[in-house]
Structure to design on (329 residues):
């Protein structure tokens, strides 16, 4: 596992000069694997925030000469939403995990902070946070990708209805297999049997496709899809689109129950300071850019999208996993 983390953070060889800042909770698999075991095992320097807060994060980056920042998309969104570029000292790289970053977010961030390279990682609690990652700036420029498969990983894309394996470019459920996949859920045989196949494939519950060159793209969580008259609407796609609106600071799209159509997309929107964006303007912005069944049909304005430690678990199953008892170092 340490080997895989070292590849992800490009720490092979003698270059162990990076200083990392921990913004993610260590009870979550992201922090547990990246910080509590992986980077520590590599001998990297780690600064730990007791709790994520933007001002405290900036102070630590500057005071301790942080060069490498693993984070989740909401932090990146907050850094981008700031009217002026924030002082980032020696920060040169950040890696984002938990949910996909859109092309607009990556490009917007690169424009505002050209000195910082963005990498991405993909994984689940059930796979020890391992699965895929972009390990170079060049790989990250393939927008929206979670990267190439991690070492020791097999993957296939499966039609969730028929169980049939799908070819390149086709979207279906991602199944992965590797030595880091969990043995099962604690005292829950039923959940284990529906998640692990007898020959060791982990059904990730993520809707993905893999392109011709082997890059993985995560479309959304299978279970979180909004079902509008049987059509599937990925909330992440609408959230990414809405974040491109110049007057929207943050957004969350949810399924709104409806007797006639089943569910329709509803958006909770945080307006930027001074904006007087209306419900209708939000809906019209979306309508012009999506298929009719994906339309946002209800909007509510809020002052913030709640994001506490538990809500960082964006792409992770709720069940607790028993991980392999392999030695970490
Ligand atoms: C996959 O999609 C890419 C981008 O749209 C396209 O260039 C490529 O030809 C496709 N390959 C196959 C095998 O469908
Ligand atoms: C904001 O918009 C609402 C309705 O769209 C309008 O009633 C109100 O006067 C506007 N306020 C400002 C400050 O423009
Ligand atoms: C996270 O926020 C939700 C909603 O605001 C709240 O119900 C929950 O108790 C919070 N959890 C923690 C660990 O703070």
């Amino acid at each position: 596992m340490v080997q895989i983390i070292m590849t992800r953070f490009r720490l092979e060889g003698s270059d162990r000069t990076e200083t990392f800042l921990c913004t993610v909770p260590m009870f979550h698999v992201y922090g547990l694997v990246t910080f509590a075991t992986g980077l520590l095992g590599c001998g990297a320097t780690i600064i730990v925030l007791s709790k994520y807060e933007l001002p405290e994060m900036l102070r630590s980056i500057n005071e301790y000469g942080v060069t490498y920042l693993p984070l989740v998309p909401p932090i990146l969104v907050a850094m981008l939403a700031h009217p002026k570029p924030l002082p980032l000292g020696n920060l040169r790289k950040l890696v984002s995990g938990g949910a996909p970053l859109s092309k607009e977010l990556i490009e917007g961030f690169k424009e505002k902070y050209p000195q910082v390279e963005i990498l991405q990682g993909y994984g689940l609690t059930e796979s020890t946070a391992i699965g895929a990652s972009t390990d170079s700036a060049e790989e990250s420029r393939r927008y929206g990708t979670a990267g190439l498969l991690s070492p020791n990983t097999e993957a296939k894309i499966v039609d969730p209805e028929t169980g049939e394996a799908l070819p390149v470019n086709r979207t279906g459920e991602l199944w992965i297999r590797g030595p880091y996949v969990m043995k099962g859920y604690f005292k829950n045989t039923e959940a284990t049997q529906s998640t692990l196949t007898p020959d060791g494939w982990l059904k990730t519950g993520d809707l993905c496709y893999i392109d011709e060159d082997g890059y993985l793209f995560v479309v959304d969580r299978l279970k979180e899809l909004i079902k509008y008259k049987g059509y599937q609407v990925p909330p992440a796609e609408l959230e990414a689109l809405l974040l491109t609106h110049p007057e929207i600071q943050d957004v969350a799209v949810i399924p709104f129950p409806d007797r006639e159509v089943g569910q329709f997309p509803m958006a909770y929107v945080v307006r930027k300071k001074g904006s007087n964006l209306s419900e209708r303007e939000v809906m019209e912005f979306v309508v012009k850019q999506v298929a009719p069944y994906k339309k946002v049909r209800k909007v509510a304005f809020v002052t913030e999208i709640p994001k506490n430690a538990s809500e960082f678990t964006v792409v992770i199953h709720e069940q607790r996993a028993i991980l392999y008892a392999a030695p970490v170092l």
Notes: Residues 306, 308-310 surround 2-acetamido-2-deoxy-beta-D-glucopyranose (ligand 3) (CB under 6 Å).
